């Protein structure tokens, strides 16, 4: 694994935990973790349960005892690492967004396609797909329960930048993160909307805004944000604070998307609603173990059902606890490992593929292009 | 009063009920109701409690025993009736949207301004303003509780057109209604967003869509929709089924708006959320007696409070029932009458004025212009 | 009508409004209202729309132009007035609880039975039965949707006595009110539980408690409570502050009941939940337009549906507004008038009858007896 | 560890995971797991990450390389194992309920007290205490935020026995489980109510009921329940299906408790509500990452706040994910390990102690005694 911050902790937990609750066809070994600082990466290896550590990710690519590389670093490093890994015959799990540009994403996707020919697979880490309630949503749509979809409503609302004094982090630096709310959290709902609806976006009309143009360099980092100093130096915020766009889908549905880190009071409101002609679905990650489902067949006594997606029949949940005993954020990562290992063992392409992630990247680019052109309609 | 359908019933109830629960400075008399069909308007007069009926609205304008005319007919008739009434020295309460075009709305507003000089007042019936929870929202914003507003999220979601076979009604005929979801329900959230935030929209980027292009002429009308015949003639739907747009406000806030009658499962989800730097507010008419409020000062133990807007200190509610004993949809109309009568007695302009309603009309026009021009950014 | 306080206002509104929204087989006239204070009752007549006023309820019984007497006074006066009215051939609508003792209730019920022989009817005002969501609950149970009922969970939680300094009112004086939370609000959920389940309670084990033994005499009355003086005289609270009991129903269901006015934050949480073997129902008056319904047939994708009880097919709601446009507290009273007038016109016994109300009274008595006897099981 | 079923999996996960997210003062080694079936316990050791396995728990007590024994077997075995372990100088973590009788619990508590003198500690596994939202509830009560507590409302509602054909399991066999809903799930809310309120129950009036007297022996076991055969042999259910009781607390609060596995639609509704004179708290495990909090100081704009108990300032959550990224059921067990290891390292008694658990056991006994004596009030 490359990287040992927030995503590094989540991925490590997933690799440790997956074989404890699921019968995996292959037994993953947590061979090595890489990071630039020798001392810190060694500490991370010990803490997270990796057998060894490296200070250069290239060493992971070179080592023969490594079959898969899990890339958990900022987006500006994705292309170089994943392409090298795939070319070296290592399977790859790469965090989202796939890259910081369509051009990079295309090169990565080409590398993945070439590797696939050799039985080497690449997967992109849109982990929310494996939240059981969202997996159930996908299953319901695929079953035809919703009928043709008219509306997609997608929001990802957080509030950790509301404080004008929250410090600059790599997430606010375009050279590292590629974009702001758009790529960090918007990408999740774009992927989820396309995946669950089974249709891609065909065009967008977008608006981007940066409310706070500069922020303190350094300060007290807490969670993703924190409290910057009030009298120290400031640096420029080079990414969007909010992305809002309307969209159309292949099947004719109308979409409304919003991603922001200024929605005071919304902590992790990754929300999706689909209105079909036969049924509707709604989800909010702040109540992550539940899926709301409205079935027109229930009328006149219909209403959104709060399905607790914890039944043994539901995706993944039968391997955990009895019904009603909720799962947490990290379980999506564990399920991602389960499916990735299963696909590799079966010689099948795991999902989401780099092609899927490239499509998301194209949407991100269309959003930026539209926003830069008076919100004019822009094809994806 | 002119008109005796859905809005006619609601307004009549308001005129009958207002003096029973509030001490009004003037005692309204329900003198006459007008409609084209003599028999049906006479029946409506009897049912709704009007002393007499007329088959021509011009008679109301002429009668000396009438001081105020309440206009509850489709939008295409608003300009002619209200202007005649105002010129005849009658106060006017006119249903929303104010008109079917900016040009009409401007003429009406000019007539209202001229009448005001003579102590005659005009008000537009955006009745949701008087839902206690929304009145409380306005009060909280005005008190400065939210600080500068970053986000406005406004939706008006209904589902009564989901059925492709729901019949054609005047609401689907552009010549009568002016527009579809946009003017019928979108206008409500545009007005509410501007009024509560205290700032106007400055520009929009919009998308309109008509999912079902033609519908049965006639059928079984139920509520606003119903079930059309499956083998009879069909006629064209000439209005939008959905309106979606991004927006900017004077104060720098970013807005996302959506109005639709295809959101299966959402019956009357007139929703508004404002995120300020100090507090946030959220409202959904499907839980109309509650206002959600998040106060950053409560952190780290903050959360959206579900305020039941039924306290004696809350707007209007002290005149009704003990706390927790909710009010219904029609109370907004009753409160509208209370405030209108109070303003007339005090010789003051009631709110929303025609100027306020004209501003909403300009937003509607900008939305249509943007949608017709590849969603390009369009100033209001 | 006798009485013009909280219930007087609600009942007057109902009499005025019922014929405006429903086609009644008889046209009620609001002939006269009675109260002891001549000036105040005359003002109430004017405010509430009664044609005349009387200072002695006996005058209503004597007047020939009165066919029905609506009794909205404290419980200690119910027996005398209703029996006199029934014997004089007047139909009676009597507020709940029916009486302050089983003995009074039995005499009233006997009078009602005798009157019924002469075509004169008595009804008890458990108005919550006509909240559309609860009427729908009854309909669902009657349809067999729930199967045998295992559990009944009934709460009526308010908080207006939390403040130790809230003033003494007649509701805290046993000689007037009969009991405290038990009869005032507990009676509502006892009636609702028996009516909706279709089974009576057979026994109880109860606990009563008075948290605050004395309160200020006088003060600033607001809603049902208010703020008493802090240094003036105090008087004894002679009723229960809370009633809690377990129960068994005829059909084998186990019940848990609680009524209190000290549940800080719960304003009018009149709640009922029934768990059957096939489906479950839950209701909370603080979200009064919705009924929660869980259908085992939906498993494994089952969940409590939030049914907005505002469909044209639902009880009463088709006469009001489009779906999703909620009703308020007072609509239950209006529907009560509608059904009462309909029953009288049809020569049928309206529900709830005095027999039904007597059964509630027997439960109240059993609760008090059990609480006085170490919570020992007490048959109803 | 002894036992490898549901609780065994949860505890193993906790031991594996605690050091990965928390800095523990001692490094736990997962030395050995014991179970009667050699093959299955060896498989469990491998699956759950234990270094070795034993077929007799006594071997764990004898082994020198074991410092702590975690007891995850049915209640009938608790006394023997824990007493032997404590006498052998092993720290003990024992699942709840502590025992199947007060007599056993007293002997265990005496053994724990004696062991404590020698620096050896015993803890009982009421793991819900370490659900962050409930830990936060405790912190709020301890801070005085609620003021004197008037009401405790505690429910534990599940539905996995609703199906009359669900098979017999050890949880329905009194000789193994001690009691039914009462000890299995009621014990959790009794402990939580006493712990969070900071006061013990002083007396109860109770009702127990077994709805389904016999069930199929064997069948298809799923989760805690499943589907028994319809024509095979049946065996007697020897425990309660539901326990309901009223209660009083030391501080004067009135409690209402209910535990059942027949509340159709309620999957794991472990609920607690406390009403103080200054604030109220409410929790439902089906929305386990949130705590509802009502603060009277917020009036008249007060309402239950939905606090997402995921802030860095909240108990335990700072070691996991950013705010709003929820935790799951098993995190309570991990936190339990964290605190247990911390207490052992510090030489302090971990909580809940066996004394705390004995108090719960006394409540269980009082409930059974009252239910057997016509629900008569019974001191704890």
Could you name the key traits of this structure?
about 375 residues; alpha+beta; Rossmann fold; Dihydrodipicolinate Reductase, domain 2; 2 domains; nine-stranded mixed sheet; three-stranded parallel sheet
CATH topology of the largest domain in chain A: Dihydrodipicolinate Reductase, domain 2
Number of helices of chain A: 10
Main sheet record of chain A = 9 strands, mixed
Q: Just give the CATH class of the largest domain in chain A.
A: Alpha Beta
Widest beta sheet: strand line-up of chain A: 17-16-15-14-6-13-12-7-18
- Estimate the helix proportion of chain A, in percent: 25-40%
Return Rg of chain A in Å. Answer: 21 Å
**What gap, in angstroms, lies between the N and C termini of chain A?**
33 Å
Q: What is the chains' assembly state?
A: homotetramer
Q: Given the helix and strand composition of chain A, which structural class is it?
A: alpha+beta
Keywords (chains A, B, C, D): Oxidoreductase
InterPro entries (chains A, B, C, D): Gfo/Idh/MocA-like_OxRdtase_N (IPR000683), Gfo/Idh/MocA_oxidrdct_glycsds (IPR050463), GFO_IDH_MocA-like_dom (IPR055170), NAD(P)-bd_dom_sf (IPR036291)
Domain GFO/IDH/MocA-like oxidoreductase (chains A, B, C, D): 137-281
GO molecular function (chains A, B, C, D): nucleotide binding; oxidoreductase activity
Strand-helix topology:
The structure is a homotetramer of 380-residue chains.
Chain A (H helix, E strand, L loop, with lengths): L5 H16 L10 E3 L3 H11 L3 E3 L2 H6 L5 E4 L6 H10 L3 E5 L6 H16 L4 E4 L6 H11 L6 E9 L16 H4 L3 H17 L3 E9 L4 E3 L2 E4 L2 E4 L5 E3 L5 E8 L4 E7 L8 E8 L2 E6 L5 E6 L8 E5 L22 H16 L7 H18 L6 E2 L1
Parallel strand pairs in A: 1-2, 3-4, 4-5, 6-13
Antiparallel strand pairs in A: 6-14, 7-12, 7-18, 8-11, 9-10, 12-13, 14-15, 15-16, 16-17
GO molecular function, one term (chains A, B, C, D): nucleotide binding
Pfam families (chains A, B, C, D): GFO_IDH_MocA (PF01408), GFO_IDH_MocA_C3 (PF22725)
Protein name (chains A, B, C, D): Gfo/Idh/MocA family oxidoreductase
